[in-house]
Amino acid sequence: MEVEGILSALIPSWSSVVLLFCYFGYLAVAGSVLPGKIVPGAVLSDGSRLHYRCNGLVSLLLLLILLQTGVYMKWMPSTVIADKGFELLSTTFIFSLIVSLILYTTGLKSMNQSSSLRPHATGDFVHDWWFGVQLNPHFFGIDLKFFFVRAGMMGWLLINLSLLAKSYEAGTANVSVILYQLFCTLYVLDYFFYEEFMTSTWDIIAERLGFMLVFGDLVFIPFTFSIQGWWLLKNKVELTKAAIVANCLVFLIGYMIFRGANKQKHVFKKDPKAPIWGKPPKVVGGKLLASGYWGIARHCNYLGDLLLALSFSLPCGVSSAIPYFYPTYLLILLIWRERRDEARCSQKYKEIWVEYCKHVPWRILPYVY
């Protein structure tokens, strides 16, 4: 019966469709009109570069104020997202399928020869649909890749806040729940505070927009990153003081590495001569940074990301593997992505990459991998 109930709950409803499109509509309008720093993106192969309005934090805070007003005025319950969780999951999944197919068909027909919109098709439908055929497709002036990742990150926080409200209603909000919610909230707020750093990430500058990114941003990020919150809603975990301290240390160390590494790379791309840890940066071949975190491991930011993912799961204890799905998946994903990055960099930089690997022999975790 429980399985039948879940399958029944997965059937999309009109209310879930309306909720999803109201959310996207708000993000489209807010992203276009709210004030924000205009950040130039990476220089593309044709010499052009996109510009991004980084107003995600303002958009998020305004959205939270509007939602809180709606709850206060009793226009909607604070648990509405959690109550419709399965419906929203299936609705968003269907939306991702439709959007990725539209991106595939319109991308193939594009006659635009700019780096952002020029079609890159192999002729293999599955490959082109999965990875996408255009680098930066737009819709009414909105950069869809930037828009979707913003929607996914905000959606993760909104699901968590709705789960927190549901936990308070059920009387299950204890230290474990608070730790999980605190870590995730700090992570999302930090993401949008440093949103301009996103413009220099591999996803934005190199990955084409296909089902892989659309699904990853709109479905995988909000609905799987929040698995721990769903699990804690049904399972009470009592943490020892030692476990609480250890969990906080994992989060802080992970954050220090993740944010520090991404900030160093972003600053280096803006100013290759900017000091790192108080010293002039060491650069291999005039292109590849080998100082700071990037002198410790070639993908040191992945290590920080993995520690943060682990910190989101540790509040759930060790009685079940379910809350550890996200860090386990992320480990597999990042190793796969690291291998792809290494192959691309080897092809792009050739002998410079070989020299860089001699200076920085470790891929992610020093002395281990």
Describe it for me?
With 369 residues, this protein is mainly alpha-helical. The protein is built from 15 helices and 6 strands. The chain has helices at residues 2-9, 14-33, 56-72, 80-83, 85-109, 125-131, 144-170, 175-193, 202-205, 211-224, 227-234, 241-270, 300-313, 325-349, 351-359, and strands at 37-40, 51-54, 138-139, 142-143, 283-284, 288-289. α5 packs antiparallel against α10 (211-224), α8 runs parallel beside α12 and α13 runs antiparallel to α14. The protein is globular and about 60 Å long. The chain starts with a helix and ends in a 10-residue tail after the last helix.
Give the overall shape: globular
CA-atom Rg in angstroms:
21 Å
What's the number of helices? Answer: 15
Low-confidence region ranges: none
- Class by SSE composition: mainly alpha
Task: Spell out the helices and strands N to C.
Answer: HHEEHHHHEEHHHHHHEEHHH
Largest sheet entry = 2 strands, antiparallel
* Mean pLDDT over all positions: 89
Strand content: under 5%
| Alpha carbon gap, first and last residue | 45 Å
Number of strands: 6
